[in-house]
Amino acid sequence: MRPKSLKGNWSSSLKFKAKLRLPTVVVLCSFFFLAGFFVSSLFFSQDVDGGGNRPRDRLLETEYDTLPFGETGDESLTSIPFQVLSWYPRALYFPNFASAEQCETIIDLAKPSLKPSTLALREGETEENTKGIRTSSGMFLSASQDKSGTLDVIEEKIARATMLPRTNGEAFNVLRYEIGQKYNSHYDAFHPDEYGPQTSQRVASFLLYLTDVEEGGETMFPYESGANLDGKHDPRDCMGLRVKPRRGDGLLFYSLFPNGTIDPLSIHGSCAVIKGEKWVATKWMRDQVQEE
Ligand SMILES: *[C@@H]1O[C@H](CO)[C@@H](O)[C@H](O)[C@H]1NC(C)=O
Protein backbone atom coordinates (compact mmCIF):
# COMPACT_ATOMS: atom_id res chain seq x y z
CA MET A 1 0.00 0.00 0.00
CA ARG A 2 0.88 3.66 -0.18
CA PRO A 3 2.29 4.19 3.25
CA LYS A 4 4.37 1.04 2.93
CA SER A 5 5.97 2.11 -0.35
CA LEU A 6 6.61 5.58 1.04
CA LYS A 7 8.42 4.06 3.95
CA GLY A 8 10.33 1.84 1.54
CA ASN A 9 11.34 4.77 -0.61
CA TRP A 10 12.37 6.80 2.38
CA SER A 11 14.60 4.11 3.87
CA SER A 12 16.19 3.19 0.56
CA SER A 13 16.89 6.82 -0.28
CA LEU A 14 18.46 7.23 3.16
CA LYS A 15 20.72 4.27 2.52
CA PHE A 16 21.60 5.72 -0.82
CA LYS A 17 22.41 9.12 0.66
CA ALA A 18 24.44 7.55 3.44
CA LYS A 19 26.50 5.58 0.95
CA LEU A 20 27.09 8.60 -1.21
CA ARG A 21 27.90 11.00 1.59
CA LEU A 22 30.00 8.92 3.91
CA PRO A 23 33.34 9.77 2.27
CA THR A 24 32.39 13.46 2.10
CA VAL A 25 31.50 13.47 5.79
CA VAL A 26 34.77 11.78 6.68
CA VAL A 27 36.73 14.34 4.69
CA LEU A 28 34.84 17.26 6.24
CA CYS A 29 35.25 15.88 9.74
CA SER A 30 38.95 15.38 9.27
CA PHE A 31 39.26 18.88 7.90
CA PHE A 32 37.53 20.51 10.89
CA PHE A 33 39.37 18.27 13.34
CA LEU A 34 42.73 19.25 11.88
CA ALA A 35 41.74 22.91 11.63
CA GLY A 36 40.72 22.88 15.32
CA PHE A 37 43.96 21.18 16.19
CA PHE A 38 45.93 23.81 14.30
CA VAL A 39 44.12 26.75 15.93
CA SER A 40 44.51 25.33 19.45
CA SER A 41 48.19 24.64 18.83
CA LEU A 42 48.57 28.33 17.98
CA PHE A 43 47.21 29.22 21.42
CA PHE A 44 49.49 26.68 23.07
CA SER A 45 52.67 27.93 21.44
CA GLN A 46 51.71 31.53 22.21
CA ASP A 47 51.32 30.85 25.90
CA VAL A 48 54.28 28.61 26.59
CA ASP A 49 56.03 31.13 28.86
CA GLY A 50 52.82 32.51 30.39
CA GLY A 51 51.02 31.25 33.46
CA GLY A 52 51.19 27.59 32.58
CA ASN A 53 47.43 27.02 32.70
CA ARG A 54 46.33 29.62 30.16
CA PRO A 55 45.69 27.23 27.25
CA ARG A 56 43.36 25.19 29.41
CA ASP A 57 41.52 28.37 30.43
CA ARG A 58 40.78 29.15 26.81
CA LEU A 59 39.43 25.69 26.18
CA LEU A 60 37.29 26.05 29.31
CA GLU A 61 35.84 29.29 28.00
CA THR A 62 34.56 27.54 24.91
CA GLU A 63 32.95 24.86 27.11
CA TYR A 64 31.14 27.22 29.47
CA ASP A 65 29.33 30.50 29.06
CA THR A 66 31.04 33.19 31.11
CA LEU A 67 29.16 36.05 32.73
CA PRO A 68 29.55 39.80 32.45
CA PHE A 69 32.20 40.75 34.99
CA GLY A 70 32.83 43.66 37.33
CA GLU A 71 35.53 46.30 37.14
CA THR A 72 38.22 44.13 38.72
CA GLY A 73 37.08 40.80 37.26
CA ASP A 74 38.02 39.30 33.91
CA GLU A 75 36.62 36.97 31.26
CA SER A 76 38.91 34.01 31.94
CA LEU A 77 37.90 30.80 33.68
CA THR A 78 40.51 29.34 35.99
CA SER A 79 40.90 25.67 36.73
CA ILE A 80 43.36 24.91 39.54
CA PRO A 81 43.25 21.30 40.76
CA PHE A 82 43.63 20.79 44.50
CA GLN A 83 43.25 18.12 47.12
CA VAL A 84 41.91 18.67 50.64
CA LEU A 85 44.63 17.26 52.89
CA SER A 86 42.90 18.17 56.12
CA TRP A 87 40.13 20.24 57.68
CA TYR A 88 41.96 20.32 61.04
CA PRO A 89 43.93 22.42 60.16
CA ARG A 90 42.51 23.54 56.83
CA ALA A 91 45.19 22.43 54.39
CA LEU A 92 45.06 22.10 50.62
CA TYR A 93 47.53 20.57 48.20
CA PHE A 94 47.94 22.00 44.68
CA PRO A 95 49.79 19.56 42.40
CA ASN A 96 51.74 21.21 39.55
CA PHE A 97 50.88 24.71 40.65
CA ALA A 98 54.00 26.10 38.95
CA SER A 99 56.15 24.83 36.10
CA ALA A 100 59.71 23.54 36.50
CA GLU A 101 60.99 26.60 34.60
CA GLN A 102 59.14 28.97 36.92
CA CYS A 103 60.69 27.20 39.93
CA GLU A 104 64.19 27.42 38.41
CA THR A 105 63.74 31.14 37.75
CA ILE A 106 62.78 31.80 41.38
CA ILE A 107 65.76 29.80 42.71
CA ASP A 108 68.16 31.69 40.41
CA LEU A 109 66.74 35.01 41.57
CA ALA A 110 67.06 34.15 45.25
CA LYS A 111 70.37 32.28 45.30
CA PRO A 112 72.75 35.29 45.32
CA SER A 113 71.07 36.93 48.35
CA LEU A 114 70.50 34.05 50.77
CA LYS A 115 71.14 34.78 54.44
CA PRO A 116 70.65 32.55 57.51
CA SER A 117 66.91 32.62 58.34
CA THR A 118 65.81 34.56 61.40
CA LEU A 119 62.89 34.23 63.80
CA ALA A 120 60.35 36.68 65.17
CA LEU A 121 61.50 36.66 68.80
CA ARG A 122 59.19 36.28 71.78
CA GLU A 123 59.90 38.06 75.06
CA GLY A 124 63.05 36.63 76.64
CA GLU A 125 64.22 35.05 73.42
CA THR A 126 67.52 36.02 71.82
CA GLU A 127 69.21 35.02 68.61
CA GLU A 128 71.58 32.94 70.73
CA ASN A 129 68.99 30.95 72.74
CA THR A 130 66.81 30.27 69.69
CA LYS A 131 69.68 28.94 67.61
CA GLY A 132 68.80 25.63 66.00
CA ILE A 133 65.04 26.20 65.79
CA ARG A 134 65.23 27.36 62.19
CA THR A 135 68.41 26.50 60.37
CA SER A 136 67.55 27.29 56.76
CA SER A 137 68.81 30.20 54.66
CA GLY A 138 66.43 32.61 53.01
CA MET A 139 65.62 35.99 51.57
CA PHE A 140 62.58 38.11 50.74
CA LEU A 141 61.61 38.83 47.16
CA SER A 142 58.66 40.89 45.95
CA ALA A 143 57.02 40.29 42.59
CA SER A 144 58.04 43.77 41.43
CA GLN A 145 61.72 42.86 41.87
CA ASP A 146 61.42 40.02 39.38
CA LYS A 147 61.81 41.45 35.87
CA SER A 148 61.03 38.07 34.28
CA GLY A 149 57.43 38.40 35.51
CA THR A 150 57.43 34.88 36.99
CA LEU A 151 56.64 35.97 40.54
CA ASP A 152 53.89 38.22 39.22
CA VAL A 153 52.22 35.24 37.53
CA ILE A 154 52.62 33.05 40.63
CA GLU A 155 51.34 35.77 42.96
CA GLU A 156 48.26 36.30 40.81
CA LYS A 157 47.59 32.57 40.76
CA ILE A 158 47.93 32.34 44.57
CA ALA A 159 45.47 35.21 44.93
CA ARG A 160 42.99 33.42 42.65
CA ALA A 161 43.45 30.11 44.46
CA THR A 162 42.98 31.62 47.93
CA MET A 163 40.63 34.48 47.01
CA LEU A 164 42.83 36.57 49.30
CA PRO A 165 43.85 39.80 47.54
CA ARG A 166 47.45 40.19 46.36
CA THR A 167 47.71 43.37 48.42
CA ASN A 168 47.39 41.27 51.58
CA GLY A 169 50.43 39.15 50.82
CA GLU A 170 53.90 39.66 52.24
CA ALA A 171 56.84 39.47 49.85
CA PHE A 172 57.87 35.91 48.93
CA ASN A 173 60.20 34.34 51.47
CA VAL A 174 62.46 32.02 49.46
CA LEU A 175 64.15 29.40 51.63
CA ARG A 176 66.81 26.78 51.14
CA TYR A 177 67.23 23.81 53.48
CA GLU A 178 70.40 21.78 53.12
CA ILE A 179 71.04 18.35 54.60
CA GLY A 180 70.19 18.37 58.32
CA GLN A 181 68.42 21.71 58.15
CA LYS A 182 64.86 22.02 59.49
CA TYR A 183 62.32 24.30 61.11
CA ASN A 184 60.84 23.17 64.41
CA SER A 185 57.06 23.24 64.72
CA HIS A 186 55.71 26.75 65.09
CA TYR A 187 52.80 29.01 64.22
CA ASP A 188 52.90 31.46 61.34
CA ALA A 189 50.36 33.64 63.16
CA PHE A 190 51.56 35.77 66.09
CA HIS A 191 49.72 35.15 69.33
CA PRO A 192 49.29 38.50 71.12
CA ASP A 193 50.02 36.82 74.49
CA GLU A 194 53.49 35.93 73.24
CA TYR A 195 54.30 38.61 70.71
CA GLY A 196 52.28 41.56 72.00
CA PRO A 197 49.39 43.32 70.26
CA GLN A 198 49.41 42.82 66.48
CA THR A 199 48.26 45.42 63.97
CA SER A 200 47.89 42.72 61.32
CA GLN A 201 47.76 38.95 61.47
CA ARG A 202 48.80 36.14 59.14
CA VAL A 203 45.66 34.39 57.88
CA ALA A 204 47.10 31.77 55.58
CA SER A 205 50.41 30.47 54.22
CA PHE A 206 51.06 29.31 50.70
CA LEU A 207 54.20 27.21 50.21
CA LEU A 208 55.47 26.62 46.70
CA TYR A 209 58.01 23.81 46.59
CA LEU A 210 60.77 24.70 44.13
CA THR A 211 62.63 21.38 44.20
CA ASP A 212 62.04 17.70 44.73
CA VAL A 213 63.74 16.44 47.88
CA GLU A 214 65.18 12.95 47.73
CA GLU A 215 64.57 12.23 51.41
CA GLY A 216 63.16 14.25 54.31
CA GLY A 217 62.22 17.91 54.17
CA GLU A 218 58.48 17.26 54.52
CA THR A 219 56.18 19.96 55.81
CA MET A 220 54.59 18.43 58.90
CA PHE A 221 51.47 19.18 60.90
CA PRO A 222 52.35 17.21 64.04
CA TYR A 223 48.92 17.51 65.69
CA GLU A 224 46.68 17.18 62.64
CA SER A 225 43.13 16.31 63.76
CA GLY A 226 44.37 16.17 67.35
CA ALA A 227 46.93 13.36 66.86
CA ASN A 228 50.08 13.01 69.00
CA LEU A 229 48.67 15.16 71.80
CA ASP A 230 49.22 12.50 74.49
CA GLY A 231 52.23 14.40 75.90
CA LYS A 232 54.57 11.56 74.94
CA HIS A 233 55.77 13.23 71.76
CA ASP A 234 58.45 15.82 71.29
CA PRO A 235 57.03 18.60 69.09
CA ARG A 236 60.42 18.81 67.40
CA ASP A 237 59.98 15.31 65.98
CA CYS A 238 58.92 14.80 62.40
CA MET A 239 55.39 13.40 62.83
CA GLY A 240 51.71 13.80 62.05
CA LEU A 241 50.53 14.74 58.59
CA ARG A 242 53.57 15.08 56.34
CA VAL A 243 53.64 16.68 52.91
CA LYS A 244 56.48 15.61 50.66
CA PRO A 245 58.00 18.49 48.70
CA ARG A 246 57.77 18.12 44.93
CA ARG A 247 58.94 20.71 42.45
CA GLY A 248 56.07 22.97 41.37
CA ASP A 249 53.56 21.73 43.97
CA GLY A 250 51.79 24.11 46.32
CA LEU A 251 50.56 23.74 49.89
CA LEU A 252 48.04 26.13 51.40
CA PHE A 253 46.97 26.15 55.01
CA TYR A 254 45.06 28.54 57.23
CA SER A 255 46.47 29.74 60.55
CA LEU A 256 43.24 31.41 61.59
CA PHE A 257 39.74 30.05 62.01
CA PRO A 258 37.01 31.86 60.07
CA ASN A 259 36.30 33.83 63.27
CA GLY A 260 39.86 35.20 63.28
CA THR A 261 41.28 33.28 66.25
CA ILE A 262 44.43 31.18 65.85
CA ASP A 263 43.84 27.52 64.93
CA PRO A 264 45.97 25.54 67.43
CA LEU A 265 46.30 22.68 64.92
CA SER A 266 47.91 24.97 62.31
CA ILE A 267 51.22 24.41 64.12
CA HIS A 268 53.66 23.03 61.55
CA GLY A 269 57.33 22.56 60.84
CA SER A 270 59.85 21.42 58.28
CA CYS A 271 61.37 17.98 58.85
CA ALA A 272 65.14 17.86 58.43
CA VAL A 273 66.40 17.25 54.93
CA ILE A 274 68.08 13.84 54.85
CA LYS A 275 69.12 13.67 51.22
CA GLY A 276 69.08 16.40 48.59
CA GLU A 277 68.20 20.05 48.98
CA LYS A 278 64.87 21.72 49.66
CA TRP A 279 63.89 25.04 48.17
CA VAL A 280 60.55 26.61 48.94
CA ALA A 281 58.91 29.97 48.27
CA THR A 282 56.47 30.98 51.00
CA LYS A 283 53.80 33.62 50.74
CA TRP A 284 52.13 34.70 53.95
CA MET A 285 48.72 36.26 53.50
CA ARG A 286 47.60 38.83 56.06
CA ASP A 287 44.24 40.09 57.25
CA GLN A 288 45.32 43.65 56.42
CA VAL A 289 46.69 45.28 53.28
CA GLN A 290 50.48 45.21 53.36
CA GLU A 291 52.66 48.15 52.42
CA GLU A 292 55.71 47.17 50.46
C1 LIG B 1 36.45 30.51 66.96
O1 LIG B 1 36.25 29.36 66.20
C2 LIG B 1 36.79 28.17 66.75
C3 LIG B 1 36.63 27.04 65.75
O2 LIG B 1 35.33 26.94 65.30
C4 LIG B 1 36.15 27.88 68.08
O3 LIG B 1 36.70 26.72 68.66
C5 LIG B 1 36.39 29.07 69.01
O4 LIG B 1 35.71 28.87 70.24
C6 LIG B 1 35.88 30.36 68.38
N1 LIG B 1 36.30 31.48 69.22
C7 LIG B 1 35.57 32.58 69.37
C8 LIG B 1 36.15 33.62 70.27
O5 LIG B 1 34.51 32.75 68.81
Automatic annotation (TrEMBL):
Keywords carried by this UniProt record: Dioxygenase, Endoplasmic reticulum, Glycoprotein, Iron, Membrane, Metal-binding, Oxidoreductase, Signal-anchor, Transmembrane, Transmembrane helix
Record's catalysed reaction(s): L-prolyl-[collagen] + 2-oxoglutarate + O2 = trans-4-hydroxy-L-prolyl-[collagen] + succinate + CO2
Protein name (record): procollagen-proline 4-dioxygenase
Alphabetical list of PANTHER family matching this protein: PROLYL 4-HYDROXYLASE ALPHA SUBUNIT (PTHR10869), TRANSMEMBRANE PROLYL 4-HYDROXYLASE (PTHR10869:SF246)
EC class of the enzyme, as a word: oxidoreductase
Subcellular localization: Endoplasmic reticulum membrane
GO CC, alphabetical: endoplasmic reticulum membrane
InterPro entries referenced in this protein's UniProt entry, alphabetically: Oxoglu/Fe-dep_dioxygenase_dom, P4HA-like, Pro_4_hyd_alph, Pro_4_hyd_alph_FE2OG_OXY
Keyword hit for Endoplasmic reticulum: yes
Family note: Belongs to the P4HA family.
Pfam families listed in its UniProt record: 2OG-FeII_Oxy_3
Topology of this chain in the membrane: Single-pass type II membrane protein
Entry's transmembrane regions: 20-44
Documented EC number(s): 1.14.11.2
Record-annotated Fe2OG dioxygenase domain positions: 167-287
Cofactor: L-ascorbate
UniProt KW Membrane keyword: yes
Entry's Gene Ontology molecular function annotations: iron ion binding; L-ascorbic acid binding; procollagen-proline 4-dioxygenase activity
Primary subcellular site in the record, as a coarse category: endoplasmic reticulum
